[in-house]
């Protein structure tokens, strides 16, 4: 892991405001407790140590997000004799409850409870029972507050992740739907234009091989050629109008865009392990087909098994072909009409490749494709 990855994000304006407010509250509460505790019959030396260490703990609150547990343990030690550290200790309990697991939070609670017991012996607290009940109630309330904030943040983060995942799924589905629609239009227009052009070829050939044709026959053939050419031109304009990309649309994806596609799925919460080992110059149509296969596989994984790990292997070499394999835990009940996989089979067949899919004995869903790669 590099240093840039380990580096923590800088404080935002909100963080500075919250940390400043927390510091002021800790100092204010600490001063109140210190003034009340100075009335007890303790030595001047203990009061001085109380003030110094309590103030240092308040200053350490600026680093509470980085070392919450360490500072909370330090607070438990200082809290055995310091009133000035009382406010900072309460804030650190809340901080641990927000940022750490429940087991760690309970550990800090026990440490503070022991610290309170030692404090009663050091400061000769007269009303021991009342002090224990009050301290326990305050610690429990602070811990519950912190746990509530933690659960609320986790809920909000889960909702954000779901929204991001839904957005990525919708985008991938829209791209796949657009691709399938364009393929259907292209196949239909191929048949239509093929028929029109076949008529042109037949009648033009008749004119070329029958120089003795009558004027009426030549005029009739020319009219058929003109009408067929006009209709073919109209059909071509229609298909171009449908398939023309809107302004600002990115170019068609290539094989080099695979890592970007995978990274987008990772940001949506899908753990993807990508292995690419395909050195050499891959034909453009084969690379685009491999991209679409991985895209459809990720769409199905996000749709049918969200959050489950996906393993992708793209390997190959010239003359051996390109091998694309995807594996992810298969859901107990698969939904969908399977048209996406059918479209992938057709796309693989268009480049003289093959595609396989289904459950494995290990209970995974496997999508495998072999695509030709000329030497």
From TrEMBL:
It comes from the Bacteria. Keywords: ATP-binding, Kinase, Membrane, Nucleotide-binding, Phosphoprotein, Transferase, Transmembrane, Transmembrane helix, Two-component regulatory system. Its EC number is 2.7.13.3. Gene3D superfamilies: 1.20.5.1930, Histidine kinase-like ATPase, C-terminal domain (3.30.565.10). It is an enzyme of class 2 (transferase). GO terms for molecular function: ATP binding; phosphorelay sensor kinase activity; protein dimerization activity. It catalyses: ATP + protein L-histidine = ADP + protein N-phospho-L-histidine. The keyword Phosphoprotein applies. This is histidine kinase. One of its GO terms (cellular component) is membrane. Residues 14-153 form the DUF7134 domain. InterPro entries: DUF7134, HATPase_C_sf, Sensor_HK_TwoCompSys, Sig_transdc_His_kin_sub3_dim/P. Pfam families: DUF7134, HisKA_3. The chain crosses the membrane at residues 16-34, 46-63, 69-98, 105-122, 128-149. Residues 182-246 form the Signal transduction histidine kinase subgroup 3 dimerisation and phosphoacceptor domain.
């Amino acid at each position: 892991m590099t240093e840039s990855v380990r580096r923590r994000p800088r404080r935002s304006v909100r963080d500075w405001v919250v940390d400043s407010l927390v510091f002021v509250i800790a100092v204010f509460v600490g001063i109140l407790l210190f003034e009340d505790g100075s009335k007890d019959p303790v030595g001047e030396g203990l009061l001085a140590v109380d003030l110094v260490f309590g103030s240092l703990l308040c200053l350490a609150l600026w680093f509470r997000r980085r070392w919450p547990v360490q500072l909370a343990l330090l607070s438990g030690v200082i809290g055995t004799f310091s009133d000035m550290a009382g406010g900072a200790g309460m804030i650190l309990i809340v901080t641990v409850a927000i940022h750490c697991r429940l087991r760690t939070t309970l550990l800090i609670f026990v440490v503070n409870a022991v610290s309170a017991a030692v404090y009663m012996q050091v400061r000769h607290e007269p009303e021991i029972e009342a002090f224990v009940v009050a301290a326990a109630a305050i610690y429990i309330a602070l811990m519950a507050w912190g746990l509530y904030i933690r659960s609320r943040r986790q809920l909000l983060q889960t909702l954000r992740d779901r929204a991001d995942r839904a957005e990525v799924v919708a985008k991938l589905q829209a791209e796949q739907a657009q691709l399938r629609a364009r393929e259907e239009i292209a196949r239909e227009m191929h048949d239509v234009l093929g028929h029109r052009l076949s008529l042109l070829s037949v009648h033009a050939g008749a004119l070329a091989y029958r120089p003795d044709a009558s004027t009426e026959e030549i005029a009739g053939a020319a009219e058929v050629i003109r009408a067929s050419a006009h209709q073919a031109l109209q059909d071509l304009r229609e298909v171009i109008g449908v398939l023309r990309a809107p302004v600002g649309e990115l170019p068609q994806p290539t094989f080099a865009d695979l890592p970007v596609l995978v990274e987008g799925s990772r940001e949506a919460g899908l753990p993807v392990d990508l292995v690419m080992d395909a050195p050499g110059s891959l034909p453009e149509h084969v690379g685009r087909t491999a991209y679409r296969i991985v895209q459809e596989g990720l769409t199905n994984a996000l749709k049918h098994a969200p959050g489950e790990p996906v393993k992708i292997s793209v390997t190959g070499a010239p003359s051996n072909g390109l091998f694309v394999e995807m594996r992810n835990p298969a859901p107990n009940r698969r939904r969908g009409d399977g048209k996406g996989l059918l479209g992938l089979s057709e796309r693989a067949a268009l480049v003289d490749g093959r595609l396989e899919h289904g459950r494995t004995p290990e209970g995974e869903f496997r999508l495998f494709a072999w695509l030709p790669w000329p030497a």
